[in-house]
Amino acid sequence: MNKPCTNRLITLLVIGFCCISLVLPFSLAMLWSLVDPGHPWSYPHILPPVLSLQRWVDIWTTTSLPQALLHSYLLAPCVALCSVLLALPTAYAFGRLEFPGKQAAQLISLLPLIVPSFVVALFFSSLLNVLGIYSRFLGILIGQTVLFIPYAIRILSVSFSLIRQEIIDATRDLGGGPITVFKTAYLPVLKPGLLASIIMIFILSIEEFAIAFVVGSPDFVTVPTILYSYLGYNFIRSNAAVVSLILVVPNIFLMLLMERFLKARNTAVITGKG
Amino acid sequence: MKSLLLSLTVATLTFATTAQASDDLSNMTWPQVVAQAKKEGTVVWYNWFYQDRFRGEVKSFENHYGIKVIIPDGSHDANMNKFLAQSSRPTGDIDVLSLGGSDLAKFKPEKMLIGPLSNLLPQNNTLKYKMEGVDSKGYAVAYWGNQTGIAYNPSLISQKDLPQTLSDFSAYFAKHPGMFGFNYEKGGSGPAFFQSIVRNVVPDIDYQTAQPTANTMAKLTPAWKWFNQRRGQYIITASNSDSMTRLNGGEFAMVASWEDLTASLQKEGDISKAIKFYIPKMTMPGGGNVVMIPKNAPHPAAALLFIHWLTSAKTQVTFNKDFGSVPQNTESNSHYALVNKAERKNSSLWPDKPLSDAINKAFINHVIFH
Amino acid sequence: MNKQTLLAYCLLLPGLGLIIVFIFVIISMALAQSVGYFNFSGSSTFTWQFWQQILADHQLSRAFFYSLKIATISAILSVSFAYPLALWLRDPFRGSQFVSSLLKAPLLVHGLVAAFLYVNFISFNGFLNQIFVHLGLVSRPIRMQNDSYGIGVIILQVWKQMPFALLLLTGAVQSIGHDITDAAKDLGAGAWTRFVKIILPLTLKALQAALIIIFIGAAGDYSFQIVAGPIDVSSLAQLMLRIQANDANGWNLSATVAILLMLTALIGSALLALITQQVIKWGAKR
């Protein structure tokens, strides 16, 4: 068997597997989300008796899903910006400077990834209690920012290391001030890294369950609190299906966007672990 | 010096207004309360169940008084913790707090709540201030009555075969293994079921007065043996809702459930209308939930007006119709209940709260994690 | 200290400094609460009582072994699935870009959503059971929800984490020069020998990173466990949160579980990485 043929065969296998593990479950969720409230889908019906969009309307108008989306999509850009801003100086040091203890510092910067997230969340919320910080928004913002700084540090230090000293020197020799040097030597190389880390942290922030759930509970609803309520405690299959579907859509667009920015770059570099 | 004095006066004044809020209500006439409530404009109701559907129900209150009702999505424990954690702050976030009747045993109502509501509400003599064996001394008022029991699928078990007594259940479990499901956390109906079995296996304890001493708990051993001998004949589910979802899917013939949960899932079209509900003769507990106003409520008058609406005869009938809850105002009737008056006699009280908690914990230790 | 070093240390402050302070404070908070300090109610005094109480609880040991099992199996399975795929995707071919994005798709699906989709799929009247019944494999649907071995949780972990391992391994595999593998080929090394003697040792770091991250994530799992996990055993994170919410000394007791969970995650993942290293070294020498 020649190589292209093997490739095609494995490709088909992978696509087949994705159908079973992705397309099929989502289609089933779609089917459940379309069950008409007047005609429950129950034993022994094999398919829902009547389909309608009523549940989508109900969920959107009576639950706090819109509010949760608002909170989460307001938090995410703030977290992304804060993390990136705080990470920039450290990333510069990692990417462009040599100093004693650099390797140890790089390892320590991964600490937030190593401590289990629910431990961080629980004792961070306890810390907030002791400090008297009652704003849930601020609490989640601080917690998630620190949690995601490592990602920004990793991505940006690679970006900084890619900047070529010759270009900086050349710009300086030609009489360029700090702003010109930044614009010509730094910005073009940094830009994809900046965008990538912002989008990456944006997605991570929306996904993040532990801090948003523990700190936000009970009244600051975010996407994960809604999910926990609809998929855990108040589990009703049709409603859970609607909520799941609504939440997956924005993520797909974000991921497509990130893929575009990162096309040329090694993905392992982006995830910050390698 | 002058500015210092001024700021001191301002501080005293602000302090005085917040401290006054709770006492104020008792000096107001009802029209004054209504006017003050409208001025406050918002009421925040911490209720841990059916939040999405209550947002629809409160529309009539919002439209009538022009006061906005906010219902956060917190769970029961999270709301309770928030209330306790906030109690030392001058102004909290909670206007109206819902809790189960027996939760009141966990704190001193007269210290932490505005009231007694029985002196503040105009329809006070038709309402209940005692719930699940705990007397709130008028500080908390019943707005929700609920009954545990068993929901069943008539196509898998006919009415005449329904198990009624402990021996009926033993026989049914042996004959139809895997057809009965109940939960042990995330909802109280499963615990209601196993508590009922415990009472029937160990009848010589007074569950309303006994304390969870080592002696009492040791007496319960035969009950754990009963469950462990039948492991595999009954199925433990993940939550109340999970039980109902799986009953609807044809997996079970019977599950432990709530009357109101069954009725409202049917009303919403989440489960089949064919599902039925009964209270077995071996009895299962019924109780209810109460609402109260924390001392540091930001909108106390609106809270009081909201509770007035919530407990009114009309609202209670609507809840009975929409959710299957038992009306708590003596002036409302309960035409829409799932069980008839004769069967309602099988309703029992919940065990005393400390004992009830201890039984639940012991069940987890001796049966679930056995 | 020279000027550049000083500058570098100053630059580390807002990013790395913040991380160190944050994690340090949180771990100290947990440590302090586990021995009776920072009580929200009652007095704060030093005591071993919470450690004694929790260590005597047999729920804890069950949760510990359960989380350890889930984490180890998930980490090993995820990388074993990811390796062949990474090798296959090493050289670009027509459609390889599409395939790799398809494989990364689970990264986008929230863990809780994934758990729901899974439970919906395997439930009593779910798709899988209906197929089984229609094919005549079984007469009555099989009960697969909340299975007591944690198979559901492992499937979900692998589904969600495999793409992550794939990302790390693809990068590592791609950075191996073709000259090395080609040279080995010329010397007559078969595919398996090339894998064991060249690719595995050269990608060891990425492999260890993947194992560590997946192990830690799975050891601290809460979301898969609550939706799809067994009913009769808790994961460590689940136990920690349940104790915190339900017990009178909730914060203190959950702090002890938190510390145990951290130790499990750290020591477990380090051991896993170490053993992997030894096995690969041994394989390469043989």
Quick check: average pLDDT of chain A?
84
Tell me the structural class of chain C.
mainly alpha
Here the CATH topology of chain C equals MetI-like fold
Distance between the termini of chain C: 48 Å
What is the overall shape of chain A?
globular
**What's the CATH class label of chain A?**
Mainly Alpha
- The beta-strand count of chain A equals 0
Question: DSSP helix count of chain A?
Answer: 13
CATH third-tier fold name of chain A: MetI-like fold
CATH class placement of chain C = Mainly Alpha
**Class derived from helix and strand content of chain A:** mainly alpha
Helical amount among residues of chain A, as a percent range? over 70%
Total number of helices of chain C: 13
Describe the structure.
The complex is a heterotrimer of chains A (274), B (370) and C (286). With 274 residues, chain A is an all-alpha fold. Chain A has 13 helices and no strands. In chain A, helix 1 runs antiparallel to helix 12, helix 6 runs parallel beside helix 10 and helix 7 packs across helix 9. Chain B is an alpha/beta fold and 370 residues long. Chain B has two domains: 180 residues, D-Maltodextrin-Binding Protein, domain 2 (3-Layer(aba) Sandwich), CATH 3.40.190.10; 172 residues, 3-Layer(aba) Sandwich (D-Maltodextrin-Binding Protein, domain 2), CATH 3.40.190. Helices cover 45% and strands 15% of the residues of chain B. Chain B contains 17 helices and twelve strands. In chain B, strands 1, 2, 3, 6, 7, 8, 9, 10, 11 and 12 form a ten-stranded mixed β-sheet that branches. In chain B, strands 4-5 form a two-stranded antiparallel ribbon. The N and C termini of chain B lie far apart (71 Å). Chain C is an all-alpha fold. Chain C has a single domain, classed as Orthogonal Bundle (MetI-like fold), CATH 1.10.3720. At the A-C interface, helix 1, helix 3, helix 4, helix 5 and helix 6 of A face helix 1, helix 4, helix 5, helix 7 and helix 10 of C.
